[in-house]
Write a structure and sequence with these properties.
Strand order of the largest sheet: 2-1-3-6-4-5
Number of strands: 15
Length: 374
């Protein structure tokens, strides 16, 4: 029987020290649960999407804020005095910060789940910010913008949220000194950030994440929280639907068994840490409607190329399905992958570019050994 990949997984995490994101996600949980079986759109969405919600990543920081204040930042740090949104491994430079227990727990969570789309919620501004937060000349940082291979998709995701928000799309920001056209910004263009979660998730988690700044006031009065939920409700639902953009499928051997760790990428969109199939041989690639060539590679065997025409299937809650079967691969052969090291991969890529040698590309793509089981 043909294998149907499970529903792709979307995740949302609350802001690390402020009230608004935490409260909005609690409202979202209540709305999804109470609407299931009653609202046909929400019912179809949940029938076809796995949703994980983490209302807060830094409970110690939240509890540390005793007196509500719009600009007070004591609650930004965890009990050890560390800023968790500067605490992740960075793809551009060595992050000397000691990995905190909360950060490690989230990294383990990302590793153990096949997350496809994500958002982390913050406060202190009103804008949808997208990767990269950090950068170097390889990603265009000399021009004040750090561009990922999937920049068009990230712009679409940020615009989807902003345009469905009650006022974010206006781009007025929080004062006259700072405006965001269309209510979105490239993270690096706004300000450079080392060790952020959204870059980590995209590079090492194969998950497209954006940062949502949802309130100018970090700790607003309690009687304003209901309005924040109303302002964000439609945007959150439309954003979750975007997980069904692009193409998904399974890579199998000649006997129909799944092949984990096969590389599956869209031609012209190479990731510095190649995107691979999970233990069930499944892959998910977020892509805008259009024509693409999908390249599936099982190391040691000839790659397979398939041209796909991707429609906008977000309204149907199902991405285009395209499987790959390798008839020359048997179930006696399994690939053992050494996951991309948590080092500044783009820093290494810069050095390789300067030397005009594709050494790093080769090393990254050849971190797989084939093991033949007797």
């Amino acid at each position: 029987m043909p294998h149907t990949p499970p529903s792709p997984t979307c995740t949302a995490s609350g802001d690390r020290w402020k009230t608004v994101g935490r409260e909005i996600l609690l409202h979202l949980i209540d709305f999804l649960v109470t609407s299931y079986g009653r609202d046909p759109v929400i019912t179809r969405l949940l029938n076809n999407t796995r949703v994980h919600i983490m209302p807060t990543m830094n409970p110690d920081g939240f509890e540390a804020t005793k007196v509500p204040d719009c600009y007070y930042t004591r609650g930004r740090y965890n009990k050890n005095g560390e800023d968790l949104n500067r605490n992740f491994p960075d793809a551009f430079e060595n992050n000397s910060a000691s990995i905190q227990p909360e950060t490690q727990a989230v990294m383990d969570w990302i590793k153990n789940e096949t997350f496809v789309l994500s958002a982390n919620l913050h406060g202190g501004a009103l804008v949808a910010s997208y990767t990269f937060d950090n950068g170097n000349p390889v990603t265009g940082s000399l021009n004040g913008y750090s561009q990922s291979p999937d920049d068009d998709v990230f712009i679409h995701l940020a615009k989807t949220y902003s345009s469905n928000h009650a006022s974010m799309y206006k781009g007025s920001g929080c004062d006259n000194r700072q405006t965001f056209p269309g209510g979105i910004t490239n993270g690096y263009s706004w300000y450079q950030l080392e060790g952020g979660m959204q870059d980590y998730n995209y590079v090492w988690g194969q998950c497209f994440e954006i940062t949502l700044e949802l309130s100018c006031c970090k700790y607003p009065p309690a009687d304003q929280l209901e309005k924040f939920w109303r302002d964000n409700k439609a945007a959150l639902i439309e954003y979750i639907k975007q997980i069904h953009l692009g193409v998904k499928g399974q890579v199998t051997d000649k006997n129909g068994n799944p092949i984990p760790n096969a590389i599956v990428e869209a031609k012209g969109r190479p990731h510095v840490c190649p995107y691979r199939t999970n233990e069930q041989g499944e892959y998910f690639l977020l892509l805008l409607p259009g024509t693409y060539v999908i390249n599936a590679t099982v190391p040691g065997f000839k790659s397979m190329l398939k041209t796909v025409v991707i429609p906008d299937n977000t309204g149907n809650f199902s991405a285009l399905k395209q499987d790959f079967s390798f008839p020359e691969v048997s179930d006696k052969i399994r690939s053992r992958v050494a996951s991309c090291p948590k080092i500044p991969l783009y820093q290494e890529l810069t050095r390789a570019s300067a030397a005009v040698k594709p050494t790093v590309h080769i090393l990254v793509l050849m971190t797989v050994m084939l093991v033949i089981f007797k």
